[in-house]
Amino acid sequence: MSGIDWGALGTEFVLSLVFAGGAVAIYALGLRLLAVGAPPELRLETAAVRTEHVADGEIETPHRRPAVASFAAYLCFAIDIAVVLYGLYMIIPQFH
Amino acid sequence: MVVILVIVLGLVFDFTNGFHDTANAMATSVATGALKPRVAVLISAVLNLVGAFLSTEVASTVSGGIVKEGSAGVQITPAMIFAGLVGAIIWNLATWYVGLPSSSTHALFGGLIGAAIVGSGFQAVDWFNVISKIALPALFAPIVAGIVALVATYAAYTITRRATSQGAEAGFRHGQTVSASLVSLAHGTNDAQKTMGVITLTLVAAGYQKSGTTPHIWVIIACALAIAAGTYSGGWRIMRTVGRRITDVAPPQGFAAEASSAATILVSSHLGFPLSTTQVTSGAIVGSGLGKRLASVRWGTFGRMALAWLVTVPAAALVAAVATFIVKTGTVGLIITAIAAIGGMVAFYLLSRRHPVTHETVNEDEDVLASKPVAAQGGAK
After folding, report:
1. Which of A74, B132, B232, B337 has the greatest CB tally within 10 Å of its CB?
2. pLDDT category, B222, cuts 50, 70, 90?
3. Contacts 24+ apart (CB under 8 A), A11-16
4. Does any domain span residue B367?
């Protein structure tokens, strides 16, 4: 099987692992960071859901997520957007 | 006459390619409820259409080295391409009927191999390339994608371990929509191009077009529309298998699986080590099942799929061989083959009507319904 490019297969595996594993881990980290500081029952609920709680007469819990967590979360999502854009760059032949 | 038949069959093949492969990108998105079934196929169809227009550079050979083409080998005639397409379409419809995802590319190669063997003998096929370009990639694609998806799924669950409420699920669904869309676009740039290549090379062989020129605009438009229409028609039978019957896909798994598929496909096509989209996505879904909990993969379903991959090339080759045998007898044989092929297509369609799978029932699964509610079921009536 000398005609098989084993090197390319190895590169394929490593790069796929780095891109997919990295992108998923960073995205998950971003979601996790968004949950920082939220009370357990509200952990990670969306703004819409939170508003419902207010409408129900509850006092809105102050947003306790530290600014640094928000920043880090948005940084994670920004990195993933960059990865997606790079993916688009790879797909579209006109860019090459 | 043969040229017209090849063009028509080429577009039919393109259509079957489309609905066969909708599941690759969208099955998990439909299964997790990230997208409603109708919305999923619409997005996938539009992206396939766009992808088809983006990439119109046609390969210089029909079979990509599987059949020894050119001066040193055999001349691939329009009649052989015709027979090869018949084999590929019949096999695509057969696997669709039983709901198994299989590679359309391999079906096309198989059809060409069968036609070449009957047309010119066993020496017409480059068996070394059959091993290195079909058999081994088919083995590696699901393994590579599976391991990548396993790691990604494990990472996703570990990192969000304490944040498993609705927000995280929604977040993963959004991520999944984006990564599945990338898979769809990549599919459009790859697969529509193959049919364009077949039609263009047939036109060249028949003397209607100069060698080395780009496809005619009507060929590009027709191929793009055929694959998009096929995608939109939604191979629900296959989607049910991929999305529901391999493993119960939760949003983090779906996202990890689609991200792994997208990465594996993009890296492989970039390195010139093309892997079958079908086998990559199927492997990724198995990996995502293993990454969450070992027991949740239904190996029986995966075994049937693996068997279908194994049989794809020989089965399509067999049908094409028979077709070539009849076509060789002359014009009457050609007409007989064309009628038989249409009969076969209609037969599979009628068979499928007896117990149809639609966008409304795509998420139904006896085992799954018993244990948890199906989020997207009937969502797009």
Report:
1. B337
2. very high
3. A11/B267, A11/B271, A12/B144, A12/B264, A12/B267, A12/B268, A12/B271, A12/B273, A12/B275, A13/B144, A13/B147, A13/B148, A15/B263, A15/B267, A15/B271, A16/B144, A16/B145, A16/B148, A16/B260, A16/B263, A16/B264, A16/B267, A16/B268
4. no
Q: Do A13 and B178 touch (CB under 8 A)?
A: no
* Tens-digit pLDDT profile for residues B138-162: 888 889 999 999 999 888 888 887 6
Query: Is residue B369 a part of any domain in this protein?
Result: no
Token code pair at residue B349: 């369609």
Residue B119 lies in a domain: yes
Q: Which candidate in A24, A42, A44 is best for mutational testing of the B interface (most B CBs within 10 A)?
A: A24
Which residues in chain B touch residue A19, judged by CB atoms under 8 angstroms apart? 263, 266-267
ipTM of the complex: 0.78
Q: Is residue A5 part of a domain?
A: no
Q: State the smallest CA–CA distance between residue A83 and chain B in angstroms.
A: 10
If DSSP codes are grouped into helix, strand and coil, which group holds residue B118? helix
Using one digit for the tens of pLDDT, what is the confidence trace for B41-72? 999 999 989 988 887 776 767 767 777 776 66
Q: Which residues in chain B are contacts of A49 at CB distance < 8 A? A: 166
